[in-house]
């Protein structure tokens, strides 16, 4: 039996219907992460990805929650947008680096479908790896991929032609020793949780839209920027 967590009732409802249609045994839990209401050590495998980490305000807390959920020797698999991909323009002739974003920025405003207007947190690849290690997991594999995990229809971006990283995958494992309890890490102190920007984040309810697979527009609540929320460069 699989269990899936998402704080959107719209998304979980669509996924529940899809699982039923396919005859898959999956329980969907509506809850905010980190802080999954699932018991310690319940998972052989935790998967997260395709546009999930950008919503995590406290990445270290997310990694600790994952480590808590894994049984000893259980695995974490992440398949996500490459953090650098936020910098690529979607120009068709050649890829350009957007002047209004920074790889080392705290966050940026998504200005394309489907997340248009939402604030996404910017985590570097190093930060992602370090929170996983600091949560007590062993890194088994890290790969960068030229193919984005999703191509919006009707767009042909030169940045997706194979020269630039657009996605990454990560496989990590919890220790086999049952006695080992993941310890809060010390590797992530450069840029810990986005607490300093959090007070500026507004969570406003939006009307649930039609559920489209892979479409975060359907989320019931999403952060909206206030003026000065992001350190936007050149705008
Ligand atoms: C782009 S979708 C990715 C969905 C899924 N991982 C997939 O592969 O299709 C992002 C999802 O994250 C959910 N989400 C965002 N922030 C969350 C949070 N803090 N806790 C739980 N779910 C969250 C949204 O409701 C949305 O359904």
Automatic annotation (TrEMBL):
GO terms for molecular function: methyltransferase activity. Residues 4-78 form the Methyltransferase type domain. GO terms for biological process: methylation. Keywords: Methyltransferase, Transferase. Residues 174-194, 206-235 are annotated as: Disordered. It comes from the Bacteria. Residues 206-228 have a biased composition (Low complexity). InterPro entries: Methyltransf_11, SAM-dependent_MTases_sf. Pfam families: Methyltransf_11. This is Methyltransferase domain-containing protein. It comes from Micromonospora harpali.
